C-alpha cells in the first residue's frame, strides 16, 4: 500500500511539473493576465461538469468495487448519467457565457468564452475515465492518466501557437485537445481492465452502452450527491478565492495568486494520493480493519507533511522568481501563507478515504460545509481590502479548520466504542 501511495504521489508530482511548465509558457507568452485566464478555464468548466452528473465521479469507486461492479446494467446506467450531465453542462455554459465573459473575462469576446463550453464535456470524459480506473483498482493506469492529464497540455498548447493562434484561444484549444487525448487512453485502459474488446462498444454485458436501470441510477445518484456536496465544497474551498479574486482584482492579480496557490498545493499531494489509493481498498475491508488501518496512518502522514512544509516555504521566493520572472514576486508571501494551511492535508486525506469507504460521504460533506462558510465570510471580508494576501489568509484558516475537523471525526468514528455502533451515520441511507 505504501508503494501504491508513493507511486500515486510520483504521478501527481509529474502532473505538477507539467502544470508548472505549462504555466511558465503561458506566463512568458501572455503575462499574469493569461495565467489568470488559464486558471479560470481549468477550474470553471470542470466544476460545471461535475455538478451536472450528480456526483458520479465520487460514486464510481464505490460502485465499481467488488461485488457491486457485477450489478446488472451498471455500466449503461453510469454512462447515461455521464452523457446526460455532459450535454446539460455544455448547454448551461453556453447560455451563461455572456455573464461569464463580463465577470471573469472582460477583455475577451463572448463567442470565444462560449466556445470554451466544449471543455465541459471533454474534462468530464477525462474525469470519469480516471475515476473508473480508481474504482477498478488499476493503480498503474490511474497514475499514468493523472500524470498525463497535465503533461499533455503543454504540446497541445504549443500546437495552436505554432499555427498562429494566441491568447485565450490557444488556451481553450490546448485544454480541449489535451482532455481528449488523455481521455481516450483512460477509457482504453478501462476497457482492457474489464476484458472488453472493441473498446467496450459491443453493448449488452460487454460494453458501456445499453438500457439504463432507473432504480440503480437513483442509488448511484443518492450516493453521488451526498459525496458531491463534499467534493464541490472541497473544490470551492480550494478555488473560491480564485474566483472572487479574479472577479474583484482582475486576471493580472489573479495570475500571481494562482501561481502561489499551485505551489503551496504541492503539500496536498500526499493526502490526495492517500484518498485515491485507500478509498477503494477501505471499501472492501470490514469496519475493524478499516478503522485500525486509518488510525495507524495519522501520525506518519502528519509528520511527513510538516517536515516537507519547511523547505517548500523557504524555497518559495527563489522558485517563483526563477520560473516566472520578477513580475511574479508578489506571489511569494501568499505562497508561504498557503503552505502553512496545508500541514494537516495528509492526515485529512486519510480521514476522507475512511468516510467514503465506510459508506458515509455525507459526513465528509458536513465538515467541508462548515469550512465553506468560513471561506465565504473571510473571502468577502479580506479580499476587497488585502487582495491576494487576504485570499491566502482566508484559505489557510479554512484549510486548517476543515482538516482538523476531519481528523477529529476519523479519530472519533474509528475508536473501538464507535466501531461497535452501526456504521451508517444518521441521515445516510444505504446506497
TrEMBL record:
Top-level division of the source organism's lineage: Bacteria
InterPro entries, A to Z: Poly_Biosynth_Transport
Subcellular location: Cell membrane
Pfam families, per the entry: Polysacc_synt_3 (PF13440)
Coiled coil: none
Topology class, membrane: Multi-pass membrane protein
TM spans (from-to): 43-65, 77-97, 168-187, 302-324, 336-356, 363-383, 389-411
Broad class of where this protein is predominantly found: membrane
The entry's keywords: Cell membrane, Membrane, Transmembrane, Transmembrane helix
Protein name per its UniProtKB record: O-antigen/teichoic acid export membrane protein
Protein species of origin: Kribbella karoonensis
Amino acid at each position: 500500500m505504501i508503494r501504491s501511495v508513493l507511486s500515486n504521489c510520483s504521478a501527481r508530482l509529474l502532473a505538477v511539473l507539467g502544470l508548472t511548465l505549462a504555466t511558465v509558457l503561458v506566463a512568458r507568452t501572455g503575462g499574469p493576465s493569461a495565467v489568470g485566464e488559464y486558471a479560470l478555464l481549468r477550474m470553471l468548466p470542470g466544476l460545471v461538469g461535475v455538478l451536472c452528473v450528480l456526483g458520479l465521479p465520487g460514486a464510481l469507486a464505490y460502485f465499481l468495487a467488488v461485488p457491486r461492479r457485477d450489478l446488472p446494467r451498471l455500466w449503461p446506467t453510469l454512462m447515461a448519467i455521464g452523457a446526460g450531465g455532459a450535454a446539460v453542462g455544455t448547454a448551461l455554459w453556453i447560455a451563461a457565457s455572456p455573464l461569464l465573459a463580463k465577470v471573469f473575462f472582460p477583455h475577451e469576446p463572448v463567442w470565444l468564452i462560449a466556445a470554451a463550453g466544449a471543455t465541459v464535456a471533454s474534462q468530464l470524459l477525462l474525469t470519469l475515465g480516471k475515476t473508473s480506473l480508481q474504482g477498478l483498482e488499476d493503480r498503474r493506469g490511474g497514475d499514468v492518466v493523472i500524470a498525463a492529464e497535465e503533461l499533455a497540455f503543454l504540446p497541445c498548447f504549443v500546437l495552436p501557437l505554432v499555427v498562429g493562434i494566441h491568447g485565450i484561444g490557444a488556451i481553450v484549444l490546448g485544454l480541449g485537445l489535451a482532455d481528449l487525448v488523455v481521455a481516450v487512453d483512460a477509457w482504453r485502459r478501462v476497457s482492457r481492465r474489464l476484458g472488453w474488446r472493441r473498446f467496450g462498444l459491443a453493448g449488452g454485458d460487454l460494453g458501456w452502452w445499453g438500457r439504463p436501470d432507473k432504480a440503480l441510477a437513483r442509488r448511484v445518484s443518492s450516493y453521488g450527491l451526498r459525496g458531491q456536496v463534499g467534493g464541490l465544497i472541497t473544490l470551492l474551498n480550494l478555488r473560491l478565492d480564485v474566483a472572487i479574486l479574479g472577479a474583484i482584482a482582475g486576471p493580472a492579480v489573479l495570475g500571481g495568486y494562482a501561481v502561489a496557490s499551485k505551489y503551496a498545493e504541492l503539500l496536498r499531494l500526499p493526502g490526495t494520493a492517500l484518498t485515491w489509493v485507500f478509498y477503494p481498498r477501505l471499501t472492501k475491508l470490514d469496519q475493524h480493519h478499516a478503522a485500525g488501518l486509518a488510525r495507524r496512518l495519522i501520525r506518519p502522514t502528519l509528520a511527513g507533511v510538516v517536515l516537507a512544509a519547511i523547505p517548500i516555504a523557504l524555497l518559495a521566493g527563489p522558485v517563483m522568481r526563477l520560473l516566472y520572472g520578477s513580475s511574479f514576486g508578489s506571489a511569494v508571501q501568499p505562497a508561504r501563507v498557503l503552505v502553512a494551511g496545508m500541514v494537516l492535508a495528509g492526515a485529512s486525506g486519510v480521514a476522507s478515504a475512511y468516510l467514503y469507504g465506510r459508506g458515509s460521504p455525507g459526513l465528509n460533506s458536513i465538515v467541508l460545509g462548515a469550512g465553506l462558510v468560513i471561506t465565504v465570510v473571510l473571502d468577502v471580508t479580506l479580499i476587497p481590502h488585502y487582495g491576494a494576501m487576504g485570499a491566502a489568509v482566508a484559505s489557510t484558516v479554512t484549510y486548517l479548520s476543515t482538516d482538523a475537523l476531519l481528523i477529529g471525526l476519523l479519530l472519533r468514528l474509528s475508536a473501538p466504542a464507535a466501531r461497535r455502533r452501526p456504521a451508517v451515520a444518521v441521515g445516510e441511507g444505504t446506497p
